[in-house]
Amino acid sequence: MLFGTRRRAIVAGSIGLTLLATAGCSDADAKNQPQPPRTGGTLHVIVSAKPAHLDPQRIATATEANVSRLTTRTLTTFKSEPGAASSEIVGDLATDAGRPSEGNRVWDFQLKDDVRWEDGTPITCADVKHGVERSFSSLFSVAQPYAKTYLAGTDAYTGPFVGGNNGGKGLASVECVDQRNIKFRLSQSVGDFGYTVAMSVFAPVPAKQDTKDQYDKRPFSNGPYKLQEATDQQLVYVRNSYWDRKTDSVRKAYPDKIVIEANGDLATVTSNLIQNEGDFADAIDLDKNVAPNFVQQVVNDPALSARAVQGSYGGIRYLAINSKRIPNLDCRRALVYAFNKRKFRAAAGGSVFGDYANTMIAPQLKAHKAFDLYDSTNNVEGKPDVAIKLMDDQRNAGKACPTTLTLAIPEQKDIRRVAATMVETYQQIGIQLKVNGIDPETYFDIIGNPANQNDLLWAGWIPDWANGSAVIPPLFDGRLIPTKANATNNQNYSLLNDPSINDAITAALEESVPERQYRLWGELDEKIQQQAVTIPIIYMKALRMAGGNVRGGFIHPQFGQPDLCALGLA
């Protein structure tokens, strides 16, 4: 998933967490634990920008996915527990994680008894079917590709709002056996489909409450909270009285109210959380690490470090290279060779925020293959001499590389500071880098349009589940690049559309033996890196500051953030 993203033959425990003695989040001896969360109170959650999407079918980023679980339940979901358990799925609205048949091409799920919407009406198979079907509509863009990729018979289907919904038949590959039993028919064998339906694109939506493109502003809730108020800078969630804790083993739902507030001034936010006064004592920074100028203070002060929530996960920060605007392979390779990862990481706050990366599949995933095509492990400051030679060779061959490029970033102070290191880096090889700062709230929608005019794009990815199948297809399958002129849901920012890679993706998805599938994803990662369409920079770690009254925090690998479902107040 983008994170500003997000997401499984998944092996439980394949993503490990390293936690500080955080506020109620480590699994150390109980005697060493702070006071656990209590029920009640108002939790304040700070985000760098208000989530662009609340509609479950439109969720694109890790922050949106994290917030979505307050109001949206799915057939399955990830456990809300620290450690290895967080990589495991359980039945959420469904009684279990699914029952495959016909060689993993058919999957059956049964809804739990007494799961209800915020108005008290029961959740039915028809709601699940409508939720999946609406993801095929042209009225809005859908980021997660899994319904279109995996379900059978989707080529000509255009959603429930036109043509009488396929003459009243809807999408035939989602079948309501009865009100509680759902059958999915897939176009290929998918062994980890139980993880796939944990994605919000498979969330139910009741047809009577569906306001189509306006559903983004106020989705109907089946989770522990419902949206009470939404402004430009704030979302206020209050309890949903029809949510029943007995049917939901995952969401702790400690606070009575959760206020999500947008504030992109990272240094001020970190300072206020450190001072721990007023509402900031009951607050946590959800999606931004501690500001770089405060890192050493937090790490070296036992009282502050005890309040920080820290963990590693399978996320990667990378730069996408637009292969349509820079079609010359050696010109792209020059950009990879020249990149200075040391300066980038130092500006971001240092090693506490990540290890240097050479691959797109992180080491926490079993599909990871260790390789270093551009010798960056031994040259973290880059190899500008190699980059200059590549560019000189192209110029001498009459194929001069561009000397002015545009870099897209979310317009935030901390990202501007990191982008400045890239400007300096590329000046050394004669390239002027123009930084295009974009409103953070709409950033991923804008760069999600394949027609955007940026050469380099700031990006990050958290796998939707712990396998290469949640990294390589969404980021590099050229068949998923949307063709609509106004599309905002592209995640293949490099616009790579290589038939041999597309075919290899299909072969890997169809491989039923997990160990062989892992190997295929790792090989694909290396083949894609040979195309120089991304610059992997760091395998990310999180260090999030919390107020002294916040409890229950741990970094969930699904989001690379503190799990909102576990947070409460002392």
UniProtKB/TrEMBL annotation:
Organism superkingdom: Bacteria
Statement: the UniProt record of this protein carries the keyword Signal: yes
Classification via SUPFAM superfamilies: Periplasmic binding protein-like II (SSF53850)
GO-annotated molecular function: peptide transmembrane transporter activity
Entries under InterPro entries matching the protein: Peptide/Ni-bd, SBP_5, SBP_5_dom
The entry's keywords: Signal
Database matches in Pfam families: SBP_bac_5
Cellular-component GO terms for this entry: ATP-binding cassette (ABC) transporter complex; periplasmic space
Gene3D superfamilies (alphabetical): Dipeptide-binding Protein, Domain 3, Periplasmic binding protein-like II
Protein name, UniProt field: ABC transporter substrate-binding protein
Species, as recorded: Dactylosporangium sucinum
Lineage start: Bacteria, Bacillati, Actinomycetota, Actinomycetes, Micromonosporales
